[in-house]
Amino acid sequence: MLQLKSFTFNPFMENTYLLYDDSKEAVIFDPGCYEKYEQNELLEFIESQSLKLKYLINTHCHIDHVLGNAFVKKSFQIPLYIHEKEHAVLNSVSVYAPNYGFGGYEAAEPDFYIAEEDKINFGNTELDILSVPGHSPGHLVFYHKDTGICIAGDTLFQGSIGRTDLPGGDHQTLLNSIKKKMFSLPEDTKVYPGHGPMTSIGFEKEHNPFVGKKARF
């Protein structure tokens, strides 16, 4: 059975997710751990559950989602997967990180590119990939059919959507991505966003002011 553990890290209150199943193999998404105590919190949970990390995956590569990339890669000797269009986004973090107070940021190079046509396999689990650009040019979402878990990054939030005013963002593209890709998932799909609480596809279809039935735009 697939299980999910969430952590909230760094001043951006970013959600980092671990997915793991009965095999004890695990995948980590968007490690935002920057401070030592955040890194220790992550390590302690992984050790307490005897998990074996297999992959490190970035839904997208804005600073708050990649602060812990180097730490996780070094600690667990696992590869980093991103979409090819996120590589420039990732490289830019080193330039502006000090401006946000992250002078100790350490960059980590991706090992492999992934795209919508790929699958993520670990233990007894297979995840589908959806391409959902708009918040960033190569944003990906990860979906598990059996449990309805969706790791959504910064696309769809409870009652909101991702910002589109950063380089590579586009508002209409994001709206189209959500409506065509994410809203194609079952309504009981559990959406775990990059910030804030979990929501569902059905709830957002009905109530989201940007893409729901009563959308203002």
Automatic annotation (TrEMBL):
- Could you confirm whether the keyword Iron appears in this record? no
Taxonomically, the superkingdom here is: Bacteria
Q: Quote the PANTHER family the UniProt record gives.
A: HYDROXYACYLGLUTATHIONE HYDROLASE GLOC
- This chain belongs to the protein called MBL fold metallo-hydrolase
Keywords, ordered alphabetically = Hydrolase, Metal-binding, Zinc
UniProt domain Metallo-beta-lactamase: residue ranges = 13-195
Q: Name one Pfam family in it.
A: Lactamase_B
Q: Which Gene3D superfamilies does the record cross-reference, listed alphabetically?
A: Ribonuclease Z/Hydroxyacylglutathione hydrolase-like
InterPro entries, alphabetized: MBL_Glyoxalase_II, Metallo-B-lactamas, RibonucZ/Hydroxyglut_hydro
What cofactor requirement does the entry state?
Zn(2+)
